[in-house]
Amino acid sequence: VARAFAAPWSYTNWSWLNPDTRAVYWAATDTIVNEAGRVGLQLIPSLGYGCADSTIPCNPALIFNETYRDFITNSSSRTRTALRAYAQEFVARYRDSPAILMWELGNELNLAWDACTYDKAPGSYFTTAEGLAFLRSYAADIRAVDSRRPINYGLGSPRLKAYHIMETPGGGRACVTPQNPHGDCELCPGIPADTLADSLAMVELYYRDADMVSSHFYGCAPPFGNYSWCPQGGDVNTTTVPLQHFKETADAMSKPFYVGEYGPSALVWGTAPGMGPAYISGI
Questions:
Q1: 265 close to 223: Cβ distance less than 8 angstroms
Q2: What is the pLDDT of residue 276?
Q3: Element housing 260 (H / E)
Q4: Per-residue model confidence (pLDDT) at position 249
Q5: How many CB atoms lie within 10 A of CB 221?
Q6: What are the CA-CA distances from residue 237 to residues 37, 217, 262, 274 (Å)?
Q7: CA distances for 33 relative to 37, 40, 97, 168, 273, angstroms
Q8: Vertex 57: Cα angle to 55 and 58 (nearest 5)
Q9: For residues 238 and 277, what is the distance between their CA atoms, to the nearest angstrom?
Q10: 41-66 pLDDT, tens per residue?
Q11: 259 in helix, strand or coil?
Q12: What would the pLDDT profile of 86-133 be if each residue is shown by its tens digit?
């Protein structure tokens, strides 16, 4: 199985957006999908929504002179209209291919909810509720073309303070201080870290209407271990305790559990032989 980004945009305007080069885009994508089918590889195309930060070229709304908030909250925005057209064309083209395992809606949209990007501008702000409404709407767009395959939201693990930031007026805007000038939500003063119960409540909220529960997990050692709930004690380099709790929550929701990304928290495996196999074994 291979998960791969398959968005109509990234850091550059991809050829699908230009009608004059769209045929080139589909020819290249046909080659990939057909070869995957030939060798028995199943694909998870991530039909992505770019990034919310208006200072980074991967924000698709910039192409259409809109804001990311327009894109997420306005189903008639030019950005949303383009994404819908692309996704439905992509799904219709490949829905009969044995190479497609399932569809993914993009990559880690939850990390931008409640002003938790470094861009705190009003045009980049949208709430957890608005982000989930977008995902439900986008899933419906895809399901209208392919009602058979499951759809994965592609979210990361809930942020370290996701529940409390969601409950804070203005979300991550409240995190901007002289000591935290970027407003990093994990370093937000005065807002406590989520408990395990809080984090699992967010998992339930995220995936209540989804086909499956999913997670991206990079262990519990710094730096990535500072971004989501982790247990105290134990081997932070190899623990899979958070995933075990997510799996139990998925079981309680009668949904499959899919780990879309996993890896080490820090680049220490080269100096600690055996850590990598231990981590993979734990997964």
A1: yes
A2: 64
A3: strand 257-262
A4: 98
A5: 18
A6: 36, 12, 12, 11
A7: 6, 10, 8, 44, 37
A8: 110
A9: 9
A10: 999 999 988 888 888 888 999 999 99
A11: strand
A12: 999 999 999 999 999 999 999 999 999 999 988 899 999 999 999 999
Looking at residue 120, its amino acid is: K
DSSP label at residue 57:
T
Distance from C-alpha of 30 to C-alpha of 43, rounded to nearest angstrom: 13
- Residue 64 vs residues 84, 124, 250: alpha-carbon distances, Å: 14, 15, 38
Q: Are 47 and 105 in contact (CB under 8 A)?
A: yes
- Whether 213 and 158 have beta carbons less than 8 Å apart is answered as no
Q: Which helix (H) or strand (E) holds 5?
A: strand 2-5
97 DSSP 8-state letter: -
Handedness of CA 46, 219, 228, 254 (dihedral sign): positive
Average pLDDT rounded to a whole number, residues 197-221: 94
Over residues 217-243, the pLDDT tens digits come to 888 877 666 789 999 877 777 788 999
Give, for 103, the enclosing helix (H) or strand (E). Answer: strand 103-104
Identify the sign of the CA torsion 94, 212, 112, 125: positive
Three-state secondary-structure class, residue 88? helix
Q: For residue 50, what are the CA distances in angstroms to 58, 71, 116, 156, 253?
A: 5, 11, 15, 15, 29
Count Cβ neighbours within 10 Å for each residue of 90-120 and write b for 16 or more, e otherwise.
bbeebeeeebbbbbbbbbbbbbbbbbbbbbb
- Alpha carbons 172 and 70: distance in angstroms, whole number: 19
